[in-house]
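Hi again,

Forgot to attach this to my earlier email, sorry! This is the prediction with beta-D-galactopyranuronic acid bound. I've pasted everything inline since the attachment limit keeps bouncing my files.
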Amino acid sequence: MFGIDHRNRLWSGLGFAFCLLLINFRSLSKLSAEEFNYDESKVPPYTLPELLKCEDGTLVDSIDVWNTKRRPEILRMFEEHVFGTLPAGKIPLRTKIRSSVPDALEGRALRREVTVYFSDDDHGPQMDLLIYTPAGATEPVPAFMGYNFDGNHMLEKDPRIHLTESWVLNRKELGIEDHKARDASRSGSASRWSVPEIVGRGYGLVTIYYGDVDPDFDDGFQNGIHALFGKGDSPRAANAGGSISAWAWGLSRALDVLESDSTINAKKVAVFGHSRLGKTSLWTGATDQRFAMVIANESGCGGAALDKRIFGETVSRINTAFPHWFCINHRKYNNNEAEMPVDNHMLIALSAPRPVYVASAEEDRWADPYGEYLSLYHAGPAFRLFGRQVFESDQMPAVNSPVQADVAYHIRTGAHDVTEYDWEQYLKFADTHLR
Ligand code: GTR
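Structure tokens for the complex follow:
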């Protein structure tokens, strides 16, 4: 039993510790990107979990052991410790064509908007697919599918594209201060999509505003598609899926819809994403093997980069700044990456043997370009099991010198963004693997 004095001391000690924790939490979220490690010599020694060794010590020496034992184990670890899971089970989908323009982009594309409803309620959770296919295509085309950041209307000036009614991130530069999309911002993200080149090369593009599926703020998982899975989960399970899981789920539902679309070959769809949406494309490729190719553009921490390198963004920082992206269990690894039972070479390996493209930008040190390359390199053994050609060297290629085999990588000059250069490489990779 504690005497009064001891108890007081204990309480004030606990209070002090709590304050420290709070200060630490607050100050961490305020730390600017400059205050993290960008010095290769300060990367701590780290050990990556073995990709081809099962939990019971069995070594993976065949495609069968990989498919039936190791791959499911790795997938489970990512569900349990990183992204979390959403309740399984089919959600009936309804669709409605919102618009169809046969001569969009100066006659180059058929452009359709398809609303996908996730419930019987027309005002319930839903998403709008914006679908471009080459005008006059006579057979189903391979396609890229990926979320956009600010709404489908950001791809083109055309006022016929529906202005999203979903919650959007405020952006002063676009005049958005009340989380509502504005007409004035139409075509603001056109440079990130290279639509004329994509359709010109014979591909389709399917894009969706990610906030339709789950608005990107921490609201305790009440909005977006989380509402479909019951709000009664309180307290939230430590392995319940966060926003990245929700976004991945949305892309799978979009692929469900494409399976009965006559213009797109649903067996040849590459999932694409930039940054947080690149983390999402990797998790989508891992959870839904129907996607034929996976592209992660500058996906960084929690995406392609090796988290155990502690270079640029860290697990602690990402969970503090974006508490809704991952599952609660992921927070166990705040400042504790060494204890993570997985790292992101295993996330990439979950897409094997399908072709995977990882891309970085030279100035995007926050996303740890070398860590992104190394992850792809260390995922190699899973691809080799299938006879796929991967990279032999752990040294990344020079800037603006893409390397493509059955996996691909480039680091280009410039900042965190998606550019025409990036799309040129993705199209070339798709020409090899999706044709
Ligand atoms: C940053 C975040 C990154 C990346 C990026 C983005 O603030 O730290 O992990 O996801 O946002 O999505 O633009």
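Confidence is low (pLDDT under 50) at residues 1-26. The pocket of beta-D-galactopyranuronic acid is lined by residues 275-276, 300-301, 313, 318 (CB under 6 Å).

That should be everything now.

G.
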